[in-house]
Design brief:
It is a single chain. With about 300 residues, the protein is of the alpha/beta class. The chain is about 45% helix and about 10% strand. It has an eight-stranded parallel beta barrel, surrounded by five helices. The longest helix is centred in the C-terminal third of the chain and has 18 residues. The protein starts with 12 loop residues before the first strand and ends in a 10-residue tail after the last helix. The relative contact order is 0.14.
Length: about 300
């Protein structure tokens, strides 16, 4: 089931996928294909975002990004939407990444507003417009001010929504009032980018989720959305409550760090993180095991 009130161009359940690495720090492309297949075939995913924040895109080369995108497209591109993360704080670099992703066969693009530079809203509009103009692919904007330093304001989203290829927004702003106004004033497909607010955003009109905990509970997230839209609010609430320990557990530290540790506890490809991130400590893994167990996540392998 899809949201009866709002378009879901990329499906409902998407995860911002990690980039699995080998022990030497190189990309594990076979592992990426295994993980992508698991998410799509076993955890009810409609799509995947690769080379984003959770994919450690900021510490990978353009060649690595392209290789991972191609590997995931080969594995699941025939049955899931594969969205390429192309967001950087350099518009020219983002345009190059967007064109490479389009040539590789990506189904869509996602880009955050530029980080570190702190551009004014006019610069954010020009940045996203340039990316959208660079290919024929649909673009999802990504609003995460705690990482970028600048919010995408509602008036800016209204302007961006006028572009025929800017069709969605990933919302990690944490401002439900602003989210509701932006949804009311645009026809953008709205995707929750903050797992603890998934149900709240779905309840006020979001189209779906681009999740991190979807690596572990994507099936429950999908069931939660479908329960809500079918009118079974009690079931949706119960499913959300069952996942609260997972939401908290994965974000006790940086989300990539603990997601990779969690996947290792499930025997799935993940590998180490790259500096400046650092791998989970023994104490963090102990707490993670407790959180995931409380959240009903099956752990089948020994601690990493």
């Amino acid at each position: 089931m899809e949201n009866p009130l709002r378009s879901t161009p990329f499906g409902v359940m998407l995860t911002a996928m990690i980039s699995p690495f080998n022990s030497d720090g190189s990309q594990d492309l076979a592992g990426a294909q295994q993980l992508a297949t698991h998410l799509v075939d076993n955890l009810k995913h409609d799509g995947l975002v690769v080379n984003g924040t959770t994919g450690e895109g900021s510490t990978k080369t353009d060649a690595e990004d392209l290789a991972l995108l191609q590997a995931v497209l080969e594995a699941v591109g025939d049955r899931a939407t594969v969205i390429a993360g192309v967001g950087t704080n350099d518009t020219a670099h983002s345009l190059s990444s967007a064109r490479s992703a389009a040539k590789a066969g990506a189904h869509a693009l996602m880009a955050s507003s530029p980080y570190y530079n702190r551009p004014p809203q006019a610069g954010i509009i020009a940045h996203f417009t340039a990316i959208a103009d660079s290919t024929d692919l649909p673009l999802m904007t990504y609003d995460i001010p705690r990482r970028t330093g600048v919010s995408i304001e509602t008036e800016t989203l209204v302007r961006l929504a006028e572009h025929p290829r800017i069709i969605a927004n990933k919302d990690a702003k944490g401002d439900l009032e602003a989210s509701q106004w932006a949804m009311a004033r645009t026809d953008l497909a709205w995707y929750s980018g903050e797992d603890a607010l998934n149900l709240a955003l779905l309840a006020v009109g979001a189209s779906g989720m681009v999740s991190v905990v979807g690596h572990l509970v994507g099936d429950r997230l999908r069931d939660m959305a479908e329960a809500l839209w079918s009118g079974d609010i009690v079931t949706a609430q119960k499913l959300n409550e069952s996942m609260l320990p997972v939401f908290t557990g994965i974000f006790r530290s940086q989300g990539v760090i603990l997601t990779k540790a969690a996947l290792q506890l499930q025997g799935l490809p993940s590998g180490p993180v790259r500096l400046p991130l650092v791998n989970a400590t023994d104490a963090e893994i102990d707490q993670l095991i407790q959180d995931l167990t409380e959240g009903g996540v099956a752990l089948t392998h020994a601690r990493p």
